[in-house]
TrEMBL record:
Residues in C3H1-type domain copies: 258-288
Annotated family: Belongs to the TRM44 family.
A Gene Ontology term for the protein's cellular component: cytoplasm
Enzyme Commission identifier(s): 2.1.1.211
Stored PROSITE patterns: ZF_C3H1
UniProt GO BP: tRNA methylation
Protein name: tRNA (uracil-O(2)-)-methyltransferase
Listed InterPro entries: tRNA_uracil_MeTrfase, Znf_CCCH
Catalytic class of the enzyme: transferase
Keywords: Cytoplasm, Metal-binding, Methyltransferase, S-adenosyl-L-methionine, Transferase, tRNA processing, Zinc, Zinc-finger
GO molecular function annotation: tRNA(Ser) (uridine(44)-2'-O-)-methyltransferase activity; zinc ion binding
Keyword Cytoplasm: yes
Substrates-to-products reaction catalysed: uridine(44) in tRNA(Ser) + S-adenosyl-L-methionine = 2'-O-methyluridine(44) in tRNA(Ser) + S-adenosyl-L-homocysteine + H(+)
Length: 291
């Protein structure tokens, strides 16, 4: 809409319409395919020959849409612009101002150019393409558990680790004899649901406000936990594969520089200490080893 000479490339990812989240209308298609068709429809309405291409990128959302050529001559730009305006207004949802002055959205359906709340027609002047549109905040809140207080994270990690260690089933005498050479307690594995059931409500409430919640926090603490197929395990560093000798020199140097820059959680908190000797553990066994 910026100019007749405009060309575009778009890689659809999140399912959004002009005014909010995209509402599905065809259950026979996958959500992704339906959304791609919608984005292509926008291109057609804007007067483009829309082409589709699949990018060679490591992502499940890799279908791109390209608009290079117009379907109408430049002399028809004013007429097409009116069609675009009508198309946008037909997809417009009603903006409802809540009592706290924040704008919410009513997703009951299309307004077809008329607001259900006021009965007035939506403005169609050239300066306001999308009345009521609210862009996202300039400063995005970090919600991947990285901004949680260190004390809170440490407390959850310790609680979950103790839960796994204390959940170890009682072993028979034969089991004890066969494990004489392996006395380090790795604890039991529990599902994320079972772990969550043992955490207090205040902790869970705080984690629910983060993307991924408990699972993200545990995965962030890679040193202590391993989360596989929805189950939480205490990581046994003896089973970790040694780093490949074919790593590029730059990566080997970075790995060496990161060696023993943090304290070993197991050395401090695990009842059996660390499963690795000090010279093999990538983490410091005491402050005197910190680099």
């Amino acid at each position: 809409r910026s100019s007749y000479s405009c060309r575009y490339f778009v890689l659809p990812c999140c399912f959004f319409d002009f005014h909010g989240k995209y509402s599905r209308r065809q259950s026979k298609k996958t959500q992704y395919r339906e959304y791609l068709d919608f984005v292509a429809q926008v291109g057609f309405v804007c007067g483009f020959h829309v082409e589709e291409d699949c990018l060679r990128i490591p992502s499940t959302k890799r279908v791109s849409l390209i608009g290079k050529n117009r379907t109408y001559p430049a002399t028809d730009s004013a007429l097409v612009d009116k069609q675009i305006t009508q198309f946008i207004n037909n997809r417009q949802t009603c903006a409802v101002v809540t009592c706290d002055r924040k704008v919410g959205f009513n997703h009951k359906g299309h307004c077809d150019g008329v607001c259900e709340e006021t009965g007035s027609e939506l403005p169609e002047d050239g300066t306001t393409w999308m009345p009521g549109f609210q862009p996202r905040e300039k400063v995005q809140q970090i919600r991947n558990c990285a901004s949680l207080p260190r004390e809170f994270v440490d407390d959850v990690v310790l609680n979950v680790a103790n839960l796994l260690l204390n959940a170890t089933p009682q072993k028979s005498c034969s089991d004890m004899q066969s494990e004489n050479t392996n006395t380090w307690n790795q604890g039991e594995s529990l599902s994320l649901k079972e772990v969550a059931e043992h955490l207090n409500k205040e902790t869970l409430k705080r984690l629910k406000s983060e993307y991924g919640g408990l699972q993200t926090l545990l995965k962030n603490n890679h040193q202590v936990f391993e989360v596989l197929n929805g189950r939480v395990h205490i990581r046994d560093w003896r089973k970790e594969k040694p780093s490949s000798k074919t790593k590029p020199e730059a990566k080997r140097r970075l790995s060496a520089e990161a060696f023993k820059t943090r304290l070993c959680w197991f050395f401090i908190h695990h009842p059996d200490g660390c499963s690795l000797p000090s010279e093999s553990c990538p983490y410091a066994h005491g402050t005197e080893e910190l680099r």
